[in-house]
Amino acid sequence: MPKNTPMRRKDRKVTDEDAIRFILMNQEVLHLGLSDSDRIYVVPVNYAFTYEDGHLALYFHGAKAGLKYEILQEKPDVGFCIDGDQVVIPDEKDAGRFTTHYKSVIGSGRVSMIQEREEAKTALSLFMKHYSPRDWDISDAMAERTAIFRLDAEEFQVKVNR
């Protein structure tokens, strides 16, 4: 079970697993925060997920080279944010009463690269289900030429401001 991070606005916290799955399924981009030796590097990635019994695993992919790949080989501890459905709600009389409606999932965890072909194919199938309504055949070649990463969330929180 992930660590429970304190949240100031507890009235916005989402704990229902079906509601969390719905939010995760209906967003498209995960912002991944990596720590290089002298900077923070944030990169947007497409993602897939599993969420069972309070455990959130996020999957993303990329080339088997490049800055993201190199940083993750050295420092697999990351932060992440998935957000969407933002709408600014103005107040006609009081600037201090503007608000934003949104849905967000934020947290941190550890990334590992999936090495086993069948697990990689399963992860790629999850990607395709997330972004496409039809079933796709995932070939061995697809699984082998792509770096597939799994982020196991050690802590996360889900918030909604309607």
Key features of this structure:
globular; 4 helices; Pnp Oxidase, Chain A; 7 strands; seven-stranded antiparallel β-sheet; 162 residues; alpha+beta
3D architecture notes:
The chain contains four helices and seven strands, in the order αββββαββααβ. The chain is of the alpha+beta class and 162 residues long. The protein has a single domain, classed as Roll (Pnp Oxidase, Chain A), CATH 2.30.110. A seven-stranded antiparallel β-sheet has the order 2-1-5-6-7-4-3, sandwiched between helices. The longest helix is centred in the C-terminal third of the chain and has 15 residues, at 117-131.
Quick description:
The chain is α+β, with helices and mostly antiparallel strands and 162 residues long.
Q: Give the end-to-end Cα distance, rounded to a whole number of Å.
A: 27 Å
Which structural class do the helices and strands define? alpha+beta
CATH topology: Pnp Oxidase, Chain A
Return the string of H and E elements: HEEEEHEEHHE
Order of the strands making up the biggest sheet: 2-1-5-6-7-4-3
Give the C-level CATH assignment.
Mainly Beta
Total number of domains: 1
> What is the CATH H-level superfamily?
Electron Transport, Fmn-binding Protein, Chain A
Major sheet attributes: 7 strands, antiparallel
| Count of DSSP H/I helices | 4
Based on CA atoms alone, the radius of gyration comes out at: 17 Å
Q: What's the mean pLDDT score? A: 88
What's the helical proportion of residues? 10-25%
Quote the beta fraction: 35-45%
**Global outline:** globular
